[in-house]
Write a structure and sequence with these properties.
Layout (H helix, E strand, L loop, with lengths): L1 H11 L1 H15 L9 H16 L12 E4 L2 E13 L2 E9 L9 E5 L11 H7 L4 E7 L14 H14 L9 E6 L3 H13 L8 E5 L11 H9 L1 H8 L1 E2 L10 E3 L1 H11 L1 H17 L2 H14 L5 E2 H13 L2 H4 L3 E2 L2 E2 L9 E7 L12 H5 L8 E6 L11 H21 L14
């Protein structure tokens, strides 16, 4: 009944939200004498914080209108170029006034872990000057009707394979590079392995894995230990709920976004309380710029989506509890995923020194598991001074990580793909 109670609580707060919203507008009106007093600003700040803490945050916008390519500002038009019920492929189409420069395609695979793809806005923005960028835009499970079927790890991998074939060089003759962030690293490496096993000509030129839980036995974090301690039955009993009326996906079993958000918040509860107190002080002091930064961050952070129960439970069980990927036991549609099959796609593992979600070494493990990728086409980087979010967003990502990824992609294109070679035997023992 947790989902139903959540909906009831949201509705119960509606009158109070309306009252505080009216108070907020009254106190912000410059014609109101109290607007210019500390007391009036305190009331306005309290009303805004109450409204924000009880609001249901919708899907944010990317809001990337322009970028700079070769010193010229160009407009950006967002368009969905491929779609399925649970995923749309969003293209940031740059509107060049003349012939478009020849730049490689970059497919960014957003994690399907509770937040929308817009969490990677900074990631997308960093690559727009250098690449033709696409990103997976996952759907909120509570908005997908039951008639559209289930969505599990097999479906996720199928989506990635289909998208990579859709973006294959083809007529454009431009290489395709892929970038998987956090949880998305696992289905990405499995999708590439499945395509390599079939000698699919459309495998990407490279894959970059950022903060991915490839082998969570290495340097386990609190998140990894929790999965081991609880076991899959606990997650099934405590985390899965049914979408209620009036959502389009009513009746679907999901892991609700609000539950995942409460878990995120509880891990750093004091930090979030401190951030909101700081915002209150900024509002009272009239520091609009600092308050706006807070709004921008939490507008994104508090916007969450539901995950299908089957996808969530399979991810917890197969990736975090049973470690099927590093043990060579992971199957896709009944076929064993053999990471030794990867020979042509280059691999770059990127980690954050202070990552408390995917510990240092968990992503690096992919380099050893992909034994048949030539050494010259594999690389590893640990970004100093950043945590999980900072390894794919923020100033250090823009200044240090993104340029390294661009250099790696260019170098792999220069080296060219290796010739086919005999595959090593793979044992699950």
């Amino acid at each position: 009944m947790s989902y139903q109670l959540y909906e009831m609580m949201h509705l119960a707060f509606a009158p109070a939200r309306a009252a505080t919203d009216a108070m907020l507008h009254a106190m912000k009106n410059p014609l109101n004498p109290m607007h210019h007093t500390s007391f009036g600003r305190s009331i306005a700040a309290s009303a805004e914080l109450f409204e924000r803490m009880t609001r249901r945050y919708g899907k944010p916008l990317f809001g990337l209108d322009t970028t700079i390519v070769d010193g010229t500002e160009v407009e950006i038009v967002e368009e969905i170029v491929w779609s399925r019920p649970f995923c749309g492929l969003l293209h940031f189409d740059r509107q060049f006034p003349g012939p478009a420069p020849r730049q490689s395609k970059l497919l960014i695979i957003a994690p399907m872990s509770g937040h929308y793809a817009t969490l990677l806005r900074g990631t997308v923005e960093a690559f727009l000057p250098t690449h033709d960028v696409y990103i997976t835009d996952w759907s909120d499970a509570r908005q997908v009707a039951l008639a559209d079927g289930a969505f599990d790890l097999d479906d996720y991998i199928d989506c990635l394979c289909d998208i990579m074939r859709f973006l294959a060089p083809g007529a454009t003759d431009t290489p395709l590079h892929t970038l998987g962030v956090c949880q998305a690293s696992v289905p990405l490496i499995c999708a590439v392995a499945a395509m390599e096993a079939e000698d699919d000509p459309d495998v990407p030129e490279s894959m970059v894995l950022i903060g991915g839980p490839i082998d969570t036995r290495v340097n386990p974090t609190a998140v990894n230990k929790l999965a081991q301690q609880r076991g899959i039955d606990w997650f099934r009993a405590h985390c899965i709920h049914t979408v209620p009326f009036p959502h389009a996906g009513m009746g679907r079993h999901v892991y609700p976004g609000f539950l995942q958000l409460s878990g995120f918040m509880s891990m750093n509860f004091e930090r979030h309380i401190s951030a909101h107190l700081e915002m209150f002080n900024h509002l009272v002091e009239g520091d609009g710029d600092s308050a706006e930064k807070h709004r921008d961050f939490y507008d994104e952070y508090l916007a969450v989506m539901d995950l299908t129960a089957e996808f969530y439970l399979q991810t917890v069980d197969r990736v975090f509890v049973r470690h099927q990927v590093p043990l060579g036991l992971f199957r896709h549609r009944g076929n064993l995923i053999d990471l030794h099959a990867i020979r042509r796609t280059a691999l770059f593992a990127v980690e954050g020194e202070k990552d408390d979600i995917s510990g240092v070494g968990q992503t690096e493990a992919a380099l050893e598991l992909c034994a048949n990728i030539p050494a010259a086409r594999k690389s590893h980087h640990v970004q100093k001074g950043v945590g999980h979010y900072g390894v794919f967003n923020g100033s250090r990502f823009r200044a240090e990580v993104a340029p390294r990824i661009c250099e790696f992609a260019s170098e792999m294109e220069r080296l060219g793909r290796p010739a086919s070679q005999p595959r090593l035997a793979w044992s699950a023992e």
